[in-house]
Design goal:
- This protein is mainly alpha-helical.
- The protein contains 19 helices and ten strands.
- The protein has a three-stranded mixed sheet with strand order 1-2-3.
- Helix 1 links the parallel strand 2 and strand 3.
- Helix 9 runs parallel beside helix 14, helix 16 packs antiparallel against helix 17 and helix 17 crosses helix 19.
- The longest helix has 35 residues.
Length: 521
């Protein structure tokens, strides 16, 4: 658990929350510790590994080769050299390097895995990984290379640095040898015991660790979607006679037991509370378009999938995905398939599809906000024809087209990623989850969806500011419009406008989550 007061992430036998992992990964000042319960579990696990090795029993990766070489023995005199060979062999990732938060998340997820007692690593090895985090060692971890049957290449990049090999980044972001990174941090290279090399690389710590960072962004995006929707409801009420809040009523939400749907509707009601839309207007349209009226159903389904991702991540964090599994209760070291994170991979898959649906609704709402913009431009042009000079508008005119392009990207990214892995290692590894690819595509979807929601919020806020203050905004929407008014008033170029608005909206969402007590997550 993470203690905000002490700034400590304490790892023991207690369940670990995915959001706590993300917090510790993002915040370099948080100190990571293993408690005595975790150390005791690892000590018992290691003792079992050593007893098994001494018995002469053949165990995968302990005294055999890996993959298609699973039935080939490794001589006892070669076991220590074999540990180094395993790390070097698997350190084969390519592509851009992970940023510091992602790298910390990978190390932390693997450390939590050690603490569960299924890996058979020595306690001192786990403590070494904790010290890598605490002393700011930042391994250079290539992004690509895993097919999702353990994130072998990413974890080998970490293990290589631990052994005094590989590469790392210094405080200035310059690539340096792993040995120098250890020396600068006051650490001696780790010498692995038999079986530890496989334990260091055979886990899904990239998919799990970086997945926790994606989870937090998804939680924020669920709130941002409801903020943008609420602003658009305010806008169509003023320009198009819409803004009917009956679909968000407790009566409608109670009629269908979808938790995420009720939560989304409740957020909208909270944002609009105290404003004009709460009073039923006799002239209001009896039904708004489905992108408004059925938004709680769409946003709610997305929220439910975000919750399912949190569950899948915590299954991985708190389980034992090691192969072979060191099972203290039975006294056995057994081969299995817990390294195959299928539930997690499918959670990443489903969320991209859900984001595309959320994006469709957002883009359709933006489209319905376009006619008022056209009328404003016509008014400005008419004024200019009278010799007043053409007014410079605060909102770039074709942001809707940018939104349409982002939606096209979301639809493209919604295609399955997990079905494409070929068979590997002489057809022994004949199925893979491709969880890392599914996660990376989800990260791209998150980026596109967040920009799309920001464009909706900006468009609605601009029109609300143009409409004036004749009717009061909701307490929540009023605050958001006030924040975005300052950004719009500076008339930055479109890329800067969207980025600055994104920063403001992230802060507003943080406050929304805080006020709601984060009880939904």
């Amino acid at each position: 658990m993470v203690s905000a007061e002490s700034g400590t992430f304490l790892i023991g036998a207690a369940p670990v929350r995915a959001t706590a992992v993300a917090l510790a990964a993002e915040n370099r000042s948080i100190h990571v510790e293993l408690n005595q319960e975790a150390l005791s579990s690892m000590r018992k696990s290691r003792e079992l590994v050593e007893l098994t090795a001494a018995s002469g029993k053949r165990v995968y990766g302990l005294n055999t080769l890996l993959g298609s070489g699973r039935d080939t023995a490794v001589e006892e005199k070669s076991l220590l050299a074999y540990q180094v060979q395993v790390v070097r062999y698997h350190n084969s990732g390519v592509g851009a390097y992970l940023d510091r938060a992602a790298a910390r998340a990978v190390i932390l997820a693997r450390l939590i895995g050690f603490s569960r007692g299924g890996s058979g690593v020595r306690p001192e090895t786990a403590v070494f990984y904790a010290e890598m985090l605490n002393r700011g060692i930042f391994p250079a971890i290539p992004r690509e290379g895993s097919v999702g049957s353990s994130d072998l290449t990413q974890l080998a990049a970490v293990a290589a640095v631990a052994l005094g090999e590989g590469q790392a980044f210094d405080a200035d972001g310059t690539l340096i040898p792993g040995a120098k990174a250890l020396a600068d941090a006051g650490l001696q290279p780790l010498v692995l015991a038999p079986g530890e090399a496989l334990a260091l690389v055979s886990a899904n710590a990239y998919s799990v660790g970086v997945g926790t960072l994606a989870l937090v962004r998804l939680q924020h995006l669920a709130e941002l979607a409801d903020v943008a929707l609420s602003l658009s409801l305010e806008t169509i009420a003023r320009y198009d006679g819409g803004g009917n809040l009956s679909p968000f009523s407790p009566a409608i939400q109670a009629a269908k037991a979808v938790d995420g749907q009720r939560e989304s509707a409740a957020v909208v009601r909270r944002l609009l509370s105290g404003g004009w839309l709460e009073d039923v207007r006799p002239e209001v349209s009896v039904q708004d378009a489905l992108s408004f009226r059925a938004a709680p159903q769409t946003h709610g389904a997305f929220r439910s999938l975000v919750t399912q991702l949190g569950t899948a991540l915590e299954v991985e964090l708190n389980g034992r995905g090691d192969n072979p599994l060191v099972d203290i209760d039975s006294g056995q070291v057994v081969s299995g398939g817990n390294f195959q994170p299928m539930q997690l991979a499918l959670a990443f898959e489903g969320l991209r599809l859900a984001l595309a649906h959320v994006g469709i609704s957002s883009e359709r709402r933006i489209a319905k906000l376009y006619p008022p913009q056209r009328a404003i431009r016509a008014r400005h042009l008419q004024a200019a024809s009278s010799g007043e000079g053409l007014a410079q508008e605060e909102l770039p005119g074709l942001l809707w087209y940018s939104a349409a392009g982002l939606l096209a990207e979301l639809k493209f990214l919604a295609a399955p990623a997990t079905l494409g892995a070929p068979t590997l290692s002489a057809d022994v590894e004949d199925h893979s989850t491709l969880a890392p690819l599914a996660l990376q595509q989800l990260q791209r979807s998150l980026e596109a969806a967040e920009k799309l929601m920001v464009i909706e919020a900006l468009t609605a806020s601009y029109l609300l500011l143009e409409a004036g203050a004749a009717q009061p905004l909701g307490k929540g929407t009023g605050v958001v419009v006030g924040r975005l008014a300052d950004v719009l008033a500076d008339r930055p170029a479109a890329p800067d406008l969207v980025e600055r608005a994104r920063v403001e909206l992230r802060d507003a969402v943080d406050r929304e989550l805080s006020e709601a007590g984060e009880e939904t997550w």
